[in-house]
Amino acid sequence: MKILGTGCANPSCVVTNQMLEGFLDTSDQWITERTGIKERRVMSSERLIDLAVSAANKALADAGVGVEELDFIICSNVVNEYATPAMSCMIQGAIGATCPCLDINAACAGFIFALDMAEDKLRAGKADKILIVCAEEPTRMVSWEDRNTCVLFGDGAGAAVVGQGDAMKAVKLTTASRTDVLYQLRRLEPTPYLQGDHSFAPLVMKGRDVFKTAVSSSTADIKDLLARTGIDSADVKYFVLHQANERIIDSIRGLLGEQPEKFPHNVERYGNTSSASVPILLDELSREGKLQKGDILVLSAFGAGFTTAACIIEWTK
Ligand code: COA
Fold first, then answer.
1. Do 217 and 131 fall into the same domain?
2. Of all protein residues, whose CA lies closest to atom 9 belonging to ligand 1?
3. Average pLDDT, integer, range 167-189
4. Are residues 137 and 49 both part of a single domain?
């Protein structure tokens, strides 16, 4: 597998920490000190499908790949207004593709899970060109009266087109069933036969547990991949980490004994956009001319489940 092109799209509505101070018992200082987030993009006039399609079209243009060349579409999405059909089906129609597609939900680690699935299809000779779109609206999962959660998230979409190549040097996926630390219970229709409690609730998060698990698991994944491949961390150009919290990124960096310059971030502008965060950052780095052919990148993400995923890729564009 290799990445042929990337794209991203974010909602137009910018919500700053100061705006949150207007209706929440919070402060710019608290949010900045604990998370590094200064503002986030939040869905207003647009719909998630609009962002997904925009990111997909930009990635296709960047890759120089026509929709008719696509053999498969994978969409990583936790929540959107449709329970069915899958968002990938809507993306397929909107961009004019005809290939099969499916959605996955590996929470914030979804992009790397999707890269791994794409790699398998490419290796098996079942596909030559695959579109991955990570489209997320976590701001629709939280209560906007809960300062513990709503300040952390933002909406967005990131996409990549991948094709045949050997840029994927190693990948590691983990799942540890810890459903108590981060979850949302959605509303399903009642039936006359249901028994027991079927309440629904906005996102519930045990912040400190998530913080510690994220730091330890992401650090372990990265160390494992570097040891397995024999790649010296000095030869890694960038560690492209899930953008959940600047302090999490900083803690992982400290444990790896690395320099801040190697940990690009945009969490201060977008908040946590779930699985879209890694491809959005990758796209920004690419468009800013910060990636050169041959660069070694480490990608790492973690999310509800608890899922973690990391990979080492060579930038081949
Ligand atoms: N503004 C002001 N105060 C807030 C607040 C906010 N937005 N959110 C929470 N608080 C308060 C809490 O009510 C609590 O007050 P109390 O001690 O009086 O009960 C206190 O701040 C919590 O402080 P603390 O536990 O020290 O916070 P923290 O340093 O652990 O930071 C998080 C909280 C959520 C920022 C941090 O735990 C975190 O980032 N966790 C990971 C979250 C994440 O990344 N989730 C997604 C993973 S994909």
1. no
2. 148
3. 96
4. yes
